[in-house]
Design goal:
The protein has helices spanning 2-6, 58-76, 93-105, 117-129, 155-168, 182-197, 213-222, 239-248, 267-270, 286-299, 307-324, 331-334, and strands at 45-51, 82-88, 110-112, 133-136, 148-150, 174-179, 205-208, 229-231, 257-260, 279-282, 340-342, 345-349, 355-357, 360-365, 368-373. By secondary structure, the chain is of the alpha/beta class. It is elongated, with a radius of gyration of 21 Å.
Length: 383
């Protein structure tokens, strides 16, 4: 168990949160790379890498970047013991099920991926039958379970961190303005839970879409001095309209402290006047920036924001196998509560398959963001 806690992944050469909506819209490759039969290499562990390599649109782009990052992790690990079995799930549950069956038949002792929630669910069913663990990349907590661990940017961690920080700065009553979207559904539930745990009053929680935004903002404005902060987990796609509605309704950052999540880490959000001075939670950037620099040097392209997840997953598998052999992939080891520091900072897997991250809090100002509360380097006992 202690071996797990001692592993550090960030920046090792020996080294909002975004989901698919934030990825490049460049078309994905249309044909999967041909895989020759992989010979058994003594002393190496076979790891199934299941990704949507030929899925259309953003999923395929993400799949290609995740594969590159996995390859990079092996190249940068001193004496790597991982042999990847790369499988294309085509972005479908049926493809993912077939890929998992093939990887396990070829001797995979753990599976890394897939990305999309329905595919994770399909792979999890196959892997459980073979008593193999999965480290996947979906942000949908409903597909997590013991044995199926999500190494992703979970919205719940963002929400918990920003509410915790706001309370530490004396905020006691937080209104919420949340979009009607799949992301909004997750953060609304997480916000209510985080507020209840910390005895935060919620005088108003308004959901909105394009046609109902102005009315929702007017109802927030009517709360008056009953709130001292406003939680607005809107992305770059919608923040300009939200900012305009807030300004029109007379809601300024001086009146209500703006609070956000990792989706604020976007130049389109940071330039919106209505949220200047706002606080939001996100992974610290230093680790990813270093990773991105090495990725560009190796592949000549920019990595997607989630590419670092595959790097960390493969690096973790390599380190655990080197220290503990296949026992490193057990549930008891993978859920060690001390966690580890990866490219995007501290993280750990929970017993239910979700993860918890140590996040920074940043303040918006002048079209950029500065860290005002650094990410923790260790989890507090009992948290």
């Amino acid at each position: 168990m202690a071996a797990f806690a001692a592993i550090g992944l960030a920046g090792c050469n020996t080294s909002g949160l975004p989901g698919l909506d934030s990825l490049s819209s460049n078309p994905a490759p249309q044909t999967a790379p041909q895989q020759a039969e992989i010979p058994v290499i003594p002393g190496k562990v076979r790891v199934g890498l299941i990704l949507p390599l030929t899925a259309p649109g953003n999923a395929g782009v993400a799949g290609a970047a995740l594969k590159n990052a996995a390859d990079m992790a092996i190249a940068e690990f001193n004496g790597s013991k991982v042999q990847l079995l790369v499988k294309d799930d085509r972005g479908t549950p049926d493809g993912a099920r077939e890929a998992a069956q093939q990887a396990l038949a070829e001797g995979a002792e753990i599976i890394v991926g897939p990305l999309l929630a329905p595919s994770v669910q399909a792979v999890g069913q196959v892997a459980r039958g073979a008593n193999r663990s999965v480290i996947a990349f979906s942000t949908d907590a409903t597909v997590a379970s013991r044995g199926v661990y999500l190494l992703s940017f979970m919205p719940e961690s963002d929400v918990d961190r920003i509410v915790e920080f706001a309370v530490s700065r004396g905020k006691k009553s937080i209104a919420a303005l949340i979009p009607n979207s799949a992301y909004g559904n997750v953060v609304a539930a997480a916000f209510q839970e985080a507020a209840a745990r910390r005895n935060v009053r919620v005088p108003a929680l308004e959901r909105y879409d394009r046609g109902t935004l102005d009315g929702a903002v007017r109802r927030i404005a009517a709360v008056g001095d009953q709130a001292d902060a406003l939680f607005v987990p809107e992305s770059g796609d919608g923040m300009a309209a939200v900012g305009q509605a807030l300004t029109t309704a007379g809601i300024s950052s001086q009146r209500l402290q703006p609070l956000g999540t990792g989706v604020w880490d976007d130049p389109r959000v940071l330039s919106v006047k209505a949220i200047q001075g706002g606080w939001f939670s996100a992974p610290e950037k230093a680790g990813f920036n270093a990773f991105a620099s090495r990725y560009r040097a190796r592949f000549g392209t920019e990595p997607t924001r989630i590419a670092s997840l595959a790097y960390d997953a493969v690096f973790l598998v390599d380190a655990l196998y080197g220290k503990l052999g296949s026992q490193g992939f057990s549930d008891a080891t993978l859920t060690n509560p001390e966690g580890i520091v990866g490219t995007d900072g501290l993280f750990r897997f929970r017993q239910d398959g979700t993860n918890q991250r140590g996040l920074a809090v940043l303040q918006v100002g002048g079209g950029s963001a500065q860290t005002i509360s650094p990410a923790p380097r260790a989890f507090s006992p009992g948290t």
